[in-house]
Structures are given as C-alpha cells and as structure tokens.
Amino acid sequence: MTAERVACPDCSLEQALPAIGDHEVARCRRCYRLLKVPEAQDHASFALTLGALLFWVPGCLLPLLTVTAGGASRSANLIACAFKLWGTGYPPLSVLVAMLMLAVPTAFMLLLTVAQAFPHAYFAHGCRRFAERLRPWLMTEVFVVGGCVAYSRIGSVATVNVDPGGWCLAASAMLLLGSLALRDEASARANEIIPPSRSSLQATAALVVAGLVLYIPANVMPVIQIERYGSIETNTILGGVVELIHYDLWPLAVIVFMASVVVPLAKLFGLSWLLWQTRRGSPRLLRQRTRIYRLIDTIGRWSNIDVFTIALLAALVQFGALERVRPEQGALAFAGVVLITMIAAQTFDTRTMWQAARAHRDAA
C-alpha cells in the first residue's frame, strides 16, 4: 500500500504519513504539527459531537437565566440574547454576536456531525473543510464563561437562577470541547497543498495596525451603561474588573482582565514580532515561533468574554426605571479589536516564516 503523502499546513514540509496505533498520533517531523489521529479517536469524537448537537438545540430555544428584581422577572434564551443588541442601537454588534453565538456553532456542529457520520461519502470532505474554516470562530465555551461572569454580576444586585437552557448550553460546550480535544480538526488542512503567499504579511500588518489604533478607545471608553433607580453609571472594561473585585469575585476578575486586556495586546504584539522576524528572513527559533503563533490563534477567542457578557446583561437586565443595562460605544470598539485580531491571526501564514528563512539562507 502506498503511504499517504501530505504537506504540513504550518511549515510546508512534504512527508509520508506512517501507519499509527490506537494510542499514537502522527506529527510533522519539522514543526511537530498534529497531522493524523487514530480511527478510534474519530469514533469517540463523533459520539461527543453528536451529544453536543443534541444539547445545543434546547440550549438555543429554552431560557438560559431568569433574573428577578423588584417583584418582576425577566428571562431570555440564546436567540433573544443574540438579537437584543439590535434594539439598543448597535446593529453591527448584534450581527457579530448572532454570528458567533448562533450561526457558527450551529453550522460547525451540523457539518462535523455529517462528516463524521458518513466519512466515506462524497460530501464528507467538503463538510470537513467548511467546518475547519469555521473552527477559529467557534466559541461555545467562551460564551459559557461569559454567562458565568454575567451571572455573578447580576447576582450581586438581583436574584438570578440558571434555567434548563443554560445547563443544556453548558453541557453542549463541554461535550464539543471534549470532541475537539480528541481530534484536532485543523489537521484536515494537511491534505491541501496550497502555496504560501507573501501578500498575507501585508494584510496581517494592516490589520495589526488597525487593532492597535482601536485598542485605546476600546479600553478608555465605557463599554456598558447601568441605570439603577434613575442613577446612571458607566463602566469601562477595567471598571468591570474592579467591580468583580469589589464583590470578591477574584477568579472571574482575573479571567476578564486576562481575556479582555492582556490577550488582545499580547496578540497584537505577538503578531508584530512574528511579522518582523519574517520580514528579516530570520532562521532563528522557527519551531518556537510556530508554536507561539498556534498559541496566539488559540487564545484570541477568549477576548469575546466581555462581548458575550454585555449581550446577556442587555437581554436580561431590563426592568424599566428600576434597573436597565445598555452597551456603550466602547463595546463596539472592543468588539472591533477582537474581530480584527482574530482575522489578523487567520491571514498570517506560518509557512512564510519557513519560506523566508530558507530564501535568506540560500542567498547567504
């Protein structure tokens, strides 16, 4: 039998994939990228993905949380949370949240379930490729953490209960996380030999500059407005962190600070360093730089915790003059930073680092 040959999607090295056992994986010889997992893990991954999809449906339709204040109660499901921001005067933010909270997870789970259920069908490869394109935008676990932050913030001023939809959504996120831990869907790209493009560096550089410009107003301007008994209070991202500390919610305060302040800045400076090293054609630390890029690409999604928290608060805390929550301009700027940095990470092609180093070495 002829060994399957693939090109590593991270460093372009063409190599033959060996036969692997039930407890083995195949990685790239040069950059250690995961290229192949055993068939048994595929079956377990399918079971977990199917379970995640079955919990996802009621998680979208049933109420997530119920908030009670002043004798009145409010509840909202995932669909209401996604579209509530439209009525507050921020349609772009509403569209972004609806795509990330509803459209992407639904499409990803459906595509992956179909591809895993019918692995040899003619449409399976196309489903896997489309699912892989959506993978960086999949944030079910990030939304669950955002829900925990919203629960804690609301619980400090009102009574809040987790409804069946909230439990189903949490179960779906955990099952999907387990499925992806068993099988790295990005490894499907290993079979696609696409030449690296130097023009991707220009696009990444432009996006990094735009992200740095937006980062300042995103952290200086208020992201949320809270009205209590006629008194209006606005909070920046750091103000929200201070509020969590005030209520002795230190773990959540650390998570929000890291995800909303540290991670976007780390991504911007990390991508800037990778771009600079690639422009120089530096051959140093190529494996380490490739791993840094993988980390940047992975952690970027967590910056959406604040965006999802604002969506939940805006949908649930609506009690007229008693209490009301609305997003502010800073939320739009912050969502822009998160979106831009995620796109920047996707446009950067790690293979250009290896290509540039090889060209520099040949010219020396």
Write the layout of secondary structure elements.
Blueprint: E1 4-7, E2 14-17, E3 26-27, E4 34-36, H1 39-61, E5 65-69, E6 72-76, H2 78-84, H3 91-117, H4 124-134, H5 140-155, E7 159-162, H6 164-182, H7 199-220, E8 224-228, E9 231-235, H8 237-246, H9 250-280, H10 286-299, H11 305-316, E10 323-327, H12 329-347, H13 351-363
Helix pairs in contact: 1-3, 1-6, 2-3, 2-11, 3-4, 5-11, 7-9, 7-12, 8-9, 9-10, 9-12, 9-13
Main features:
globular; 364 residues; mainly alpha; 13 helices; three-stranded antiparallel β-sheet; 10 strands; 2 domains
Structure description:
This protein is mainly alpha-helical and about 375 residues long. It has 13 helices and ten strands. The strands form four sheets. It has a three-stranded antiparallel sheet with strand order 6-5-7. The two termini are about 40 Å apart. Mean pLDDT is about 85; it is low at about 185-195.
Run of helices and strands: EEEEHEEHHHHEHHEEHHHHEHH
Task: Please list the strands of the largest sheet in the order they lie side by side.
Answer: 6-5-7
Q: List unreliable stretches of 5+ residues.
A: 185-193
Radius of gyration: 22 Å
The amount of helix comes to 55-70%
Helical stretch count?
13
The average pLDDT score comes to 84
| Main beta sheet | 3 strands, antiparallel
Give the CA-based shape: globular
The percent range for strand residues is 5-15%
Question: Could you tell me how far the N terminus lies from the C terminus, measured between alpha carbons in angstroms?
Answer: 41 Å
